[in-house]
Amino acid sequence: MSDSCGDSCASKVPVVDPQYRRILVIALLVNLVMFVVEIMAGSAAGSSALLADALDFLGDAANYGISLYVLGHAMVWRARASLLKGLTMGLFGCWVLYATVGRLLAGQVPEASTMGIVGLLALLSNVGVALMLYRYRTGDSNMQSVWICSRNDAIGNIAVMCAAGGVWLTASAWPDVVVALGMAVLAISGATQIIRAALHELREEKDIA
Length: 209
Fold this sequence. Notes:
- By secondary structure, this protein is mostly helical.
- It is elongated.
- Helix 2 (about 20-45) runs antiparallel to helix 3 (about 50-70), helix 2 packs antiparallel against helix 5 (about 110-135) and helix 3 runs parallel beside helix 7.
- The protein has 7 helices and no strands.
- About 40% of the residues are buried.
- The longest helix has about 35 residues, at about 175-209.
């Protein structure tokens, strides 16, 4: 009985693509570096959008680390990791909503030039990672979650640059606030998609067992 189960479990363990592993390592390092850059720039410039993007980089770095850890594990473990990442992304989106409202009430106008420069750097970083991950976007829920994080980041960086232009033109914090709120909604939407895919995979594994 135990031998049969061992053979069955082994058959579910995927062969790890070395190229995909290397891409995840690169993505992890890029996100850690950009987290440090954006958290410092966002604090200095007083930008909610940059701070939201910085925490997004940190969350993605953790996600890439988890993805590296579960590579080669059975589907049930990869699905559980995806569920954890989805819940984390959703909590991040809720935190951004809370932090943005706080900055809005404080009435602080962010520094547009810093937002634009750092936003462009972040965009180039995320587009590079997203292009490397594009071919893996239709894999299991774990691969999908990695792709969704990278895609959301690139979209968020474009929005930050637009917010920088809006702040510069209007001398108001509202463009920064609107973008930060949009990034929060994007994070919550992506989290919902990841959680649904992970729960579906867990149900399928339970039915097979």
